Amino acid sequence: MSDLLCPICLQQSVKNKESKGDAFEYECTTCGPYNISRSAEQTRINNPVDYRFSAWIRDHQEFERERPKITTYLLEDVLKNLPNYKISEKQMLLMRAIERRTNYPGAEVLMSKEDCPLAWAKNLDELKYLLNALAERKLISLVGERTTKDEGRIKMYVVRTIILPDGWDYIDKHSSQPALTNQVFVAMSFDKELDKVWENGIKRAIVKAGYKPYRVDKELHIDRIDAKIIADIKDSRFVIADVTQQKQGVYFEAGFALGLKLPVIWCVRSDDLSKVHFDTRQYNHIVWDTPDDLREKLYNVICATVGKRKTSQEAD
Ligand SMILES: [Zn+2]
Three-state SS for 254? Predict the structure, then answer.
């Protein structure tokens, strides 16, 4: 490994760095692979970034998403929406990361200093604390902890973990819980008439509550529910279903989310209320008249039902 400094985690964990036009391609063993523009790189080395940004990048590799292309603009955008996981959530994230690395029950999984982002841990001390917490709860066993120091600084840290029987129960118990993402899947009609409802109503209410609005691309969504949509719903924390215009796809997506035990918030424009499918009338609907009206009501319902998410700005 080189002595190159990663501009994101500021560790000497860069495996490879290549120049690509006006950007660099980095392979960092802590953050994973990413591209960064020259100007963003420069700003970062002089002005260290929130440690959670490293975890955000690492998640891309972990969940097989496209390698992030970091620009100054994207950086600002992401930093505003980084989640503040609770300790219990971090333990769950770590547990799931170990599970993904487990080839068969009883197999050993190595955890190292570079794995802090898997648990959204700030540093090695926090990672060790979380690992020990899982071990004390008898969810994993820890063996062969090894630390190598160089001039007083920790150069290397590895420990072998094995998921214990209670650990598998714990994973089963938590696998049906809402995903630990801040994405909100929006199911609604793509009619032009409703563009303002999306832009000024739904999208803004979600952002204000600290979540990330996600709507499938209009072109991709022509009367079919493909594997990507299913995966997108699974990746979401909750679903907003606006049934105005009574599109079958919206009902399907909301039903699928309910099956996953994800919270679904139903909305409908007042002049369409009487047409709402009788099977779903049992659910409370937010009845709205204008995009502004919907924004306000939806924001309040999100805060009351799912909870407002603390974003990094407020946490500071
Ligand atoms: Zn890094």
Answer: helix
> What whole-number distance in Å separates Cα of residue 230 and Cα of residue 105?
29
> Among 265, 258, 250, 268, which residue's Cα sits nearest to residue 305?
265
pTM above the 0.70 mark? no
- 25 and 119 in a single domain? The answer is no
Q: Which of 3-7, 185-189, 278-282 has the lowest mean pLDDT?
A: 278-282
Q: Verify that 159 and 241 share a domain, yes or no.
A: no
pLDDT at 242 over 90: yes
Higher-confidence position of 198 and 263: 198
Give the tokens for residue 190. Answer: 């793509």
Residue 219 sits in a domain whose CATH number is 3.40.50.450
Total number of domains in the chain: 3
- Which domain does 265 fall in, by range? 183-315
Q: In what order do the strands lie in the sheet with 23-28?
A: 14-20, 23-28, 32-37, 69-70
CA of 188 to the centre of ligand 1 (A): 39
User: How far away, in angstroms, is 283 Cα from ligand 1 center?
Assistant: 46
Which residues have CB less than 5 Å away from ligand 1 (the ion)? 6, 8-9, 28, 30-31
